[in-house]
Design a protein that fits this description.
seven-stranded parallel β-sheet; two-stranded parallel ribbon; 32% helix; 11 helices; alpha/beta; Rossmann fold
Length: 293
């Protein structure tokens, strides 16, 4: 029987670390260009990844011994795995860099949360980081670990700072159905977005055109406050718009984790993604997707 993967054997190898939803959207864009290996910590996902065209690798970033099989496997890496859920340091990224090769190309998907609250300011990638919660602090740590690895190993690193990822199946339906309140306009914050398919395209752009040790804002052209986003999604899904409360009242009824997302306001410029990576956004604004619903 002819092996359907035989034609990929001579292609350059690419490793996806943490192949979740975005990784699965990325796989079709890599077909024919790379032989793709994809990690998962769940053995039951191997059949799914294989069906999507990847070679599954069972590995757990919390278990360094499980990463030994990845050492030297590929010189092109897409790092999609988030840090662990506690502590100031990203131990997972530290474990990963211990097995990465020299002279590699790596794209890391970070978060716009590293900037903290910016008072609604519009800015580019030259703004210093100022994380305000442990989740963002771990991301800053991961970026630093990877920068040092890139210099030490003479590798090319692209860091994509990513906001809220959305898609037709990644909308806040449950929140709207539960009637979770939003902020009144004068207390509301600016929020940033990227469609999951566009993020996959930006990753490909970074693999092809990313400059060494360069930051990129992987955001779309939306210019929305958070409650306006919820209103737009509610209208598209035929759901009730959320009630709006002043911040003092809101913090009494939402979780601290949710409140932290509603306490940081920023607008990120995306010129580098368009000009340096040559990406044309399929969904330039949230409204583009919502109109199809």
């Amino acid at each position: 029987m002819k092996n359907p993967n035989r034609s990929t054997f001579n292609l350059p190898r690419l490793l996806i670390v943490g192949c979740g939803d975005v990784g699965k959207r990325l796989l079709p864009l890599l077909r024919g260009h790379y032989r793709v290996f994809a990690t998962t910590s769940s053995p039951e996902r191997c059949a799914e990844l294989r069906a999507l065209g990847a070679v599954p690798m069972v590995a757990d970033l919390d278990q360094p011994a499980s990463l030994r099989r990845l050492a030297g496997l590929a010189s092109t890496i897409v790092h999609l795995a988030p840090p662990q859920g506690e502590g100031p340091l990203d131990r997972r990224t530290r474990n990963l860099t211990a097995i990465l090769p020299e002279h590699a190309r790596l794209v890391y998907v970070s978060t716009t949360g590293v900037y903290g609250d910016c008072g609604g300011a519009l800015f580019d990638e030259t703004r210093p980081v100022a994380p305000r919660n442990p989740r963002a602090t771990r991301r800053v740590d991961a970026e630093g670990v990877l920068r040092r690895w890139a210099v030490r190993s003479d590798s090319t690193l692209s860091i994509l700072r990513v906001p809220g990822i959305y898609g037709a199946e990644r909308l806040p339906r449950k929140r709207l159905e539960q009637g979770t309140p939003a902020l009144i306009a004068e207390h509301d914050v600016y929020t940033n977005h990227i469609h999951a398919d566009d993020l996959a395209a930006i990753i490909v752009g970074a693999l092809r055109h990313g400059k060494p040790n360069r930051l990129y804002h992987a955001v779309d052209d939306s210019n929305m406050k958070m409650a306006d986003y919820f209103d737009a999604v509610a209208d598209a899904l035929g759901l009730a718009r959320p009630p709006r409360l002043p911040r003092a009242q809101l913090q009494q009824v939402v979780t601290p984790a949710l409140l932290s997302f509603m306490s940081e306001s920023r607008r990120l410029a995306n010129g580098r993604v368009k000009q340096e990576l040559g990406v044309r956004l399929r969904h330039a604004t949230v409204a583009s997707l919502l109109a199809t619903l």
